[in-house]
Design brief:
Blueprint (H helix, E strand, L loop, with lengths): L4 H7 L4 E6 L4 H10 L3 E5 L7 H14 L2 E5 L5 H9 L4 E4 L5 H11 L24 H11 L1 E6 L2 H5 L1 H4 L7 E4 L1 H7 L9 H16 L3 E4 L6 H6 L4 E5 H22 L3
Length: 260
């Protein structure tokens, strides 16, 4: 099992920045790693990424030293374990609303004695079993595999005091998109009431000494950094949009000045 540099940075109190990809492209993942992203979210929930086509994306991330984290389609062992067996350094589990659900996620990620993940020491994370013992691999995997829980409904924020008591969770991530929807403000991530709930959640997480993450518009990142949030990600689609808009705006202005 590779040493998880993402967990190291978080444990050292550093902010980490990633981006989310929803389509299978190892080449794009490698490019993003070369650009210096700390981590990438390989999204199985909303796009066309599968267990099989994720493996080369995970390899591409590892090649550049960028941490590959997978968002499975749900909080079930059978959705989580196959991605870990392909080499993902961790999972970002969607729609976790209670302490019991948080425990289920941790148990799906961790081997005995911390969880119930099925042992397999002949896969990529274990170096195909060519060296070292199974027990050593399980211990290293338990230490290095990241568990991020997504808090995406008001229910999760209401239950957060009990959820932060669950051992084995590395990041509590507040997803503003679905949170705003659960509050009746679809697509209004900056609505004052949505922001108030997010800030309340961050305060609970930070007071417990846990790592907080959020999704938010880029202009709100400084605010959440000041609140102690460490874990952020954007999307590949937004990167393409913003860079393309900037490029085309500059080029078309230049063309207009040239009378073309």
């Amino acid at each position: 099992m590779r040493e998880n540099t993402l967990k190291q940075k978080l444990n050292d109190g550093k902010a980490v920045f990633g981006t989310m990809i929803t389509f299978p492209s190892a080449t794009v993942v490698e490019m993003l790693g070369c650009l210096g992203y700390d981590w990438i979210l390989i999204d199985n929930e909303h796009g066309s990424i599968t267990v099989d086509n994720s493996e080369d994306m995970i390899r591409a991330a590892e090649l550049t030293g960028m941490a590959p984290i997978v968002r499975p389609i749900g909080n079930e062992l059978e959705f989580i374990c196959p991605f870990l067996d392909r080499g993902a350094w961790g999972v970002q589990v969607p729609h976790v609303n209670t302490a019991e659900e948080a425990k289920n996620a941790v148990e799906a990620v961790k081997y005995y004695p911390l969880g119930t993940r099925g042992i397999f020491s002949r896969g990529r994370p274990a170096g195909f079993g060519f060296s070292g013992s199974t027990a050593d691999y399980a211990e290293e995997a338990n230490k290095n595999t990241l568990v991020c829980l997504m808090l995406e409904e008001v229910e999760a924020i209401e239950n957060l005091e009990s959820m932060i008591q669950v051992e084995g969770v590395d990041v509590f991530f507040i997803g503003s998109g679905d949170l705003s929807q659960s509050m009746g403000y679809v697509g209004q991530q900056t609505h004052p009431e949505v922001q108030e709930v997010m800030e309340r959640g961050v305060e609970i997480i930070r007071k417990a000494g846990k790592v907080a993450g959020v999704s938010c518009p880029d202009n709100l990142v400084p605010k959440f950094l000041d609140l102690g949030v460490q874990y952020f990600h954007g999307t590949v689609q937004t990167l393409i949009q913003t860079s393309s808009n900037a490029y085309l705006d500059t080029m078309r202005k230049a063309a207009g000045q040239a009378g073309l």
